[in-house]
Write a structure and sequence with these properties.
The complex is a heterodimer of chains A (250) and B (489).
Chain A (H helix, E strand, L loop, with lengths): L1 E4 L3 H6 L1 H13 L3 E3 L9 H6 L2 H15 L5 E3 L2 H18 L2 H10 L3 E3 H8 L12 E4 L3 H6 L5 H7 L5 E2 L15 H4 L1 H17 L4 E4 L2 H13 L5 E4 H6 L11
Chain B lengths: L17 H9 L2 H23 L4 H17 L1 H14 L3 E5 L2 H14 L4 E4 L3 H5 L2 H7 L3 E4 L2 H8 L16 H12 L8 H18 L2 E4 L3 E3 L4 E6 L3 H7 L3 E7 L3 E2 L5 H13 L6 E6 L9 E7 L3 H5 L15 H5 L1 H6 L10 H11 L17 H5 L6 H17 L8 H13 L2 H16 L7 E2 L6 H5 L4 E2 L6 H16 L1
Parallel strand pairs in B: 1-10, 2-3, 2-4, 4-7, 5-8, 7-10
Antiparallel strand pairs in B: 5-6, 6-9, 11-12
Helix pairs in contact in B: 2-12, 3-12, 9-10, 16-18, 19-20
The chains are: A alpha/beta (250), B alpha/beta (489).
């Protein structure tokens, strides 16, 4: 099976280890991966801040770049939610018929990572080993826009040595919200403080998620507060094996 | 005492932008605990009662369909309501805006020679700032809803559309009642507090012949008005006074009496976590020997027609004011209602208020959300609040595009630059490299950034940021590609 990796702008820049883990994981599962060098951003930041025209130009680029891909895999639920929930409205308002048709044909082949593993590849046990206590943070987009449901928990359940710790108030936002964390930095920080209490109360060593955006927020506060806890993208856990405990991505 | 020292500003024309208004509240432990506790309790009750309805999602769909259908044919249903209500002896008045509505109500009170009015809780009257206008005209206003009474006596403002005094706890209530009612031995026992309010209000119920109410629904088919409440104060206001004046937004109409079957089920469960609210009053015009002898209803537009004309924003008017979105909102949970500087706080306020203000005020409200989507998930009439928020943000940005000096706004400039960079991969790649060099200055020995200038300081005030890795994913992939090509040779 072939898949094209849309790494996303902030993973490319800030969390390349997540991209490397996705490559290692999917190649281990026999997927032939490609990386389109012209890719940049899905447009979510612009759309959610109110810059519709700018978001439209990123959205159009995305469709043009991936129209021939067999599958598109994206290790970020909020970017997938942008494509599924916001592209249609942008294309209705600003696009033409040809673009809408290309998008409609592409959309069923766009997958968030856990969707790709479970729904497309049909695997839950990816052969991973990660002997640590881990709590899963459900990002709002994964939870409410993509309805990922128990997919991440099923993947984690098959990881050797991993002990899952349930996170209280799982459905409550961490307060990141993209530019919300800047425009409303103080309210965002108050939400973060509450979320962090829940995360720390699990006693886990790692907090994982399918969005590095939430993890950047939580991890930034953990580091500031010497909380003795780390964040890790789910892809990096799934890429880890007994032979390469750090996922071979460090 | 820790009750608000200054009266909160909830007029969007004068209120501070949301981020600034939120600051003192975030530092107020009493208020934050009160809000978190109250919303947690209501949410838990709601969740339990929604879970027991196996057809909840169908009920939501039905409620959403009724409201959407009504808005599609709003003009016809309003005319039908007017005809039926008039035929039953009610007087229907149309108000274009808040000014108009206040003028109509003051004129009606003048005809009644009223110097006092008793009121059932109505958000619409707060929207048109009726109480200050009545007081200025020499009419004394007595709120009869317990929470509204607490706020009125405490010189405070509503912070929630269903539970207006949610930010006040009972020891604060005791202090207000003791001071304003002269009951110095009052305890903070809930029964003692409600008994004090009952005695205080009973005198007004028996003496004041003019009442003002809002409406939860207007029924086109019968010309009836529906008010739901929990304390019986509404029932008293509908039984004793000679004259009732109701103020209602034009969107409150529903087509048929039978639609109440759906609407009352979703409203009570969503609003207070009850199967049925304790008092549901319906009246149709006037009935000799039963209830008020004179009934007036003021139907308020106040920008609703203009909201109706916008395809995405129109859904805002489906709202039945249950506040489920407010109770579930993680932003509201931290700030309470006063930070919104609006009669309507929380997610619904963040979309409704700027539109009522024709986007001239309250432009910070569409940004007062992390777009987590919890509001949409619980909304009993399926208003896609995040979608409307994003649309309103686009309207705010389009206003800014017209402004001279926008280029000096770091957020605006950043967005324009980012768009330029994202348009070509080589530009983005170059920016990544430049960024790495630039940020090295701010990166500590541990590889983390603890302090950034300008907008970045907003991030680093409470969070660290890991320094930029030495290799982007793109660089790693390219290097790996070249290596495997060499190895293949």
């Amino acid at each position: 099976m072939h898949a094209s990796l849309f790494i996303t702008c902030y993973n490319d820049t800030l969390f390349p280890e997540t991209g490397r883990a996705v490559v290692r994981l999917l190649e281990r599962l026999g997927v032939a991966l490609e990386f389109h060098p012209e890719q940049t951003c899905c447009g979510q930041m612009h759309a959610n801040t109110g810059f519709r025209g700018e978001a439209f130009s990123q959205a159009k680029r995305f469709v043009r770049l991936y129209q021939d891909a067999e599958n598109v895999v994206i290790p970020s639920s909020s970017c997938v939610a942008m494509i599924r929930d916001q592209y249609p409205g942008l294309f209705d308002e600003l696009g033409n018929e040809a673009l809408r048709k290309e998008f409609a044909a592409l959309l069923p082949r766009v997958y968030e990572l856990s969707e790709f593993l479970i729904d497309r590849l049909g695997v839950e046990d990816v052969g991973a080993s990660f002997p640590h206590r881990v709590t899963y943070h459900a990002s709002c987009h994964g939870l409410r826009a993509l309805h990922l449901g128990d997919r991440p928990f099923r993947l984690l359940a098959k990881v050797r040595g991993l002990q899952q710790e349930a996170l209280p108030n799982l459905d409550r936002c961490c307060g990141f919200g993209g530019t919300f964390s800047i425009k409303n930095a103080e309210v965002s920080s108050a939400m973060l403080a509450v979320k962090l209490q829940d995360v720390i109360s699990t006693g886990a060593e790692y907090c994982t998620a399918l969005d590095n955006s939430c993890l950047m927020h939580l991890g930034g506060a953990m580091h500031r507060q010497y909380a003795g806890m780390k964040t890790i993208h789910l892809a990096e856990i799934l890429a880890s094996t007994e032979a390469s405990p750090d996922g071979g991505v460090a | 005492m820790t009750t608000a020292s200054a009266r909160p500003e909830i007029d969007p024309v004068h209120a501070l932008p949301f981020p600034q208004a939120a600051l003192p509240i975030l530092r107020n432990p009493q208020l934050r605990k009160n809000v978190a506790h109250a919303t947690d309790v209501i949410q838990a009750k709601r969740a339990k009662l929604v879970a027991e309805k196996t057809d909840w999602q169908q009920l939501r769909s039905a409620a959403s369909a009724i409201r959407a259908h009504t808005l599609e044919h709003l003009g016809a249903y309003l005319e039908e309501f007017e005809t039926r209500c008039t035929a039953a002896g009610g007087m229907v008045h149309w108000a274009d805006d808040a000014d108009d509505a206040r003028r109509i109500i003051l004129e009606l009170l003048r005809q009644e020679n009223a110097t006092e009015v008793i009121k059932i809780k109505t958000m619409t009257s707060a929207e048109i700032q009726l109480n200050p206008a009545l007081e200025a005209a020499g009419v004394s206003v007595f709120e009869t809803d317990l929470a509204e009474l607490i706020l009125q006596l405490g010189d405070d403002e509503s912070s929630h559309i269903v539970v207006p005094a949610l930010h006040v706890n009972r020891s604060q209530v005791r202090e207000i009642f003791a001071r304003r009612m002269g009951l110095h031995n009052l305890t903070d026992d809930p029964q003692a507090l409600t008994a004090a309010a009952r005695t205080y209000l009973r005198r007004k119920f028996l003496a004041v012949p003019t009442a003002i109410s809002g409406a939860n629904f207007l029924i086109a088919e019968t010309g009836s008005v529906v008010v739901v409440e929990s304390e019986g104060n509404g029932r008293m206001c509908l039984t004793l006074p000679r004259t009732m004046i109701t103020i209602a937004g034009i969107e409150k109409v529903i087509p048929r009496f039978q639609d109440l079957e759906v609407m009352l089920q979703v409203l009570a469960r969503s609003a207070t976590g009850e199967r049925m609210n304790p008092y549901t009053s319906l009246w149709t015009g006037v009935t000799p020997g039963d209830g008020p002898e004179r009934f007036h209803i003021v139907l308020l537009d106040n920008q609703r027609s203009s909201i109706l004309s916008r395809p995405t924003e129109r859904q805002t008017l489906k709202c039945i004011r249950c506040a489920a979105c407010i109770n579930t909102c993680p932003v509201y949970r931290q700030t309470g209602g006063h930070a919104y500087g609006s009669v309507y706080p929380g997610p619904i306020g963040a979309i409704l208020t700027p539109q009522l203000m024709q986007m001239h005020h309250a432009q910070s409200l569409p940004y007062a959300s992390s777009l987590c989507g919890a509001c949409y998930e619980v909304c009993p009439v399926k208003i896609n609040i995040p979608e409307v928020l994003i649309d309103l943000r686009a309207q705010v940005v389009d206003q800014e595009r017209e402004q001279f000096g926008r280029i000096f706004d770091p957020m605006y400039l950043g967005m324009k630059i980012a768009n330029f960079l994202f348009a070509r991969a080589w530009r983005f790649h170059a920016a990544q490299r430049l960024g790495r060099i630039g940020l090295r200055l701010f990166t500590g020995k541990d590889g983390w950034i603890h302090s950034l200038p300008s907008l970045g300081a907003k991030w680093t005030q409470t969070r660290d940021l890991r320094g930029l890795p030495s290799q982007t994913f793109r660089d790693w992939w390219t290097a790996r590609d070249q290596q495997s090509t060499r190895e293949a040779k």
